[in-house]
Predict the structure of YfbM family protein.
Amino acid sequence: MLGVHFAITGDQERALLAGDEETVADLVEDLEENWRDDDLKVDTDKAWETIHRCLGDGTLDYEAYPLSHAVLGGRHLHEDIHVVHVSAAEVRDVAEALRPLDRGWLRQRYDALEPGDRSAPGGDEEFEYIWSNFADVREFYQRAAKAGRAVLFTAT
């Protein structure tokens, strides 16, 4: 599954939160096909799962607020696909928590994961892939927080 984060507008947020699963799926498809602002979107390819594991306890649980909300934490809007809403207030908390995390911190967390708990098999090349995507997510959250936007994470 490929992960994407969108910093959504208030209107988009209201429509997503008011809709049923079918409406949510349609709105996500529309976002994916028609998004125009690359500064308020970030693709994480398959790295999203390993990033989430590094930000938490090595699992896909999402109880460790605020870092867990960078990927899978938040309000889940669909049962069959990952569609996760993070409010604008939570986005500010996530951005602040991500800000000080550097390459050394992520490498330590990455190396502590079990080999089967990574989106890549390990090693320096694979870590560079995770680091690059993590750095993009960290910067994305700074921009989303500055814009006062909520975030929607999807993995399809």
Q: What stands out?
A: Strands lie at 3-8, 41-45, 75-76, 82-86, 150-155. The chain has a mean pLDDT of 93. Helices lie at 10-18, 21-34, 48-55, 88-98, 103-112, 124-147. The domain at 3-155 is CATH 3.40.1760.10 (Hypothetical protein yfbM fold).
